[in-house]
Amino acid sequence: MAKDTFFQKKVTINAGGKLIDLTTPKVMGIINITPDSFYVVSRVTEVEQVRLKAEKMLIEGAIFLDLGAYSSRPGAADISEQEETDRLLPAVEAIVANHPEAIISIDTFRAAVAEAAVKAGAHIINDISGGELDENMFTTVARLQVPYILMHMKGNPQTMQQLAHYEDVFAEVFDYFVQKIYQLKQMGVHDIILDPGFGFAKKPGHSYALMNRMDEFDRLQLPVLAGISRKKMIYGLLGTTADQALNGTTALNTIALMKGANILRVHDVKEAIEAVKIYEALKRVEAL
User: How many CA atoms lie within 13 A of 131 on its CB side?
Assistant: First the structure.
């Protein structure tokens, strides 16, 4: 009996009035508008650089563009809400003006930043803190009626690595999702995407344990996002650097697809699209 006989997973989201079908996994391109994100090549600080990077990612096949102006790497410096907004809004406006077809996700844990970006034309809120770092986030998402990426993390980017302790990491993340999903649905949020938070308050072993059981999140009947691109769980294991982690990222993205990922959040769109195409070809053969 097929595993989805019991669990009818939600595979569509409404973003900006567009119904996006996630039955075929989609790719989200990362655009870091910050001078200190962990992967140096991903950093852009000028609006024209943002426009060109967005254009390249869309041509390569990205459906979503994830814009972040606050570095969430372990130990990153804190910046003010105003500085985050000032970095972010010109980038959103440039993409909306030049690529109106793009679905823009905003990587922020601050409700006011999220709202300003949505008003400027963004479509999705991607919150690393699951509403823990801003008590207004859930009410803001509900009022704006935009899709919400719910990620698991402990603490904040400055403290999270000291909090990477679990008896059963999968059980803790699963229970966290259950509680947060209930809160969001009670508030009327319709489109929720789950992100296990690989590397956020998690040692590499925790992240691999989550990846190994990621298909079990299907019991929550919601789309799942895998964000593992060039992270330490890859380059630390291989003894390389983030710059040299593309091959490992592609391998792990392929595993994530086989474990049920609906969205791959990546720095390298072309390679992720190729992984999706190969995975889909395999599925077609299995269906014969």
Answer: 19
- Is residue 62 within 8 Å of residue 118, measured between CB atoms? no
CA gap 275, 25 in Å, rounded: 10
Local confidence band at 38 (pLDDT 50, 70, 90 cut-offs): low
pLDDT in tens, 123-144: 999 999 999 999 999 999 999 9
Flag whether the pTM goes above 0.70: yes
Report how far residue 251's alpha carbon sits from residue 242's, in angstroms, rounded to the nearest whole number: 15
What percentage of the chain carries pLDDT values higher than 70?
92
**Any bridge partners for residue 31, and if so which?**
67
Contact residues for 222 (Cβ-Cβ < 8 A; gap 6+): 9, 10, 181, 192, 193, 194
CA gap 178, 190 in Å, rounded:
15
pLDDT of residue 156: 78
Cβ atoms of residues 144 and 189 within 8 Å: no
- What pLDDT is stored for residue 225 in this prediction? 98
Q: Give the C-alpha separation, 65 to 285, whole Å.
A: 31
Bridging pattern class, strands 18-21 and 12-15? antiparallel
Amino acid, single-letter form, for residue 74: P
Q: How far apart are the first and last CA of the chain?
A: 16
Task: Report which residue type is found at 223.
Answer: P
* Catalytic machinery residues: 231, 265
Amino acid letter at 66? D
Query: Is residue 124 packed enough to be buried (19+ CB in 10 Å), middle (13-18) or exposed (0-12)?
Result: buried
Strand (E) or helix (H) holding 149: strand 148-151
